[in-house]
Amino acid sequence: MTSIADNLQNIKSTLPANITLVAVSKTKPVSEILEAYNAGQRIFGENKVQEMAQKFETMPKDIQWHMIGHLQRNKVKYMAHFVDLIHGVDSLKTLKEINKQALKHERVINCLLQLKIAKEDTKFGLSFTEVENILNSEELKNLKNIHIKGVMGMASFTSDESIVRAEFKTLKNFFEKLKTINLFNCTPTTISMGMSGDYKLAIEEGSTMVRVGSAIFGHRNY
Ligand SMILES: *Cc1c(COP(=O)(O)O)cnc(C)c1O
């Protein structure tokens, strides 16, 4: 078995310099996250707010914590004081709640809009029309404590590479459209797509941020 540090090193050696690696540490103990930290990793992704908040309390404060999971609005308050980027934003209501909680801490919280690119019903996310409705809404213009930094998407779980590639392409094309929008709280620079099984494809299709868990930490036991 290879170590966490070795896995991290192997993955980083294949990533182009402009790609941000989010080490997905959900379900993993602090001791294993520290192994990655000691190997130089500073960005970690979690999918449960309380678990992330507990880890934030006990771990070095130069870690950037990313919320990558499906978000419940009533949980936003537990991470508003420290979260660095929220990947899974899928409604205007959630943006409003993030804005409200960020304001309490005098922060601006970075967000990505999650788009549904997979055909599977199990995947969360907005349709392209829904994103356009959010961006055109008057309410969005009042949200001074959020910053929309781009988009996030998850491809279908399939061994058919052409399907995964097509879904990533869709997200990349939408991102290019998003960049032409002129809003003070929306400056898209980030496409969060690609996980352990498909991050190489995602990078070929224009990803700027990959979320890799099991390829670094090994398989998860839920
Ligand atoms: C768990 C998770 C990942 C990482 O998955 P791996 O296959 O272990 O790399 C990436 N993104 C999201 C949204 C996740 O929930």
From TrEMBL:
TM annotation in the entry = none
The record ties this protein, via InterPro entries, to: Ala_racemase_N, PLP-binding_barrel, PyrdxlP_homeostasis
Keywords of this entry: Pyridoxal phosphate
Coiled-coil region: none
Pfam families in the cross-refs: Ala_racemase_N (PF01168)
User: What does the protein in this record do?
Assistant: Pyridoxal 5'-phosphate (PLP)-binding protein, which is involved in PLP homeostasis.
Query: What protein family does this chain belong to?
Result: Belongs to the pyridoxal phosphate-binding protein YggS/PROSC family.
The entry's protein name is Pyridoxal phosphate homeostasis protein
Which organism does this sequence originate in? Lutibacter holmesii
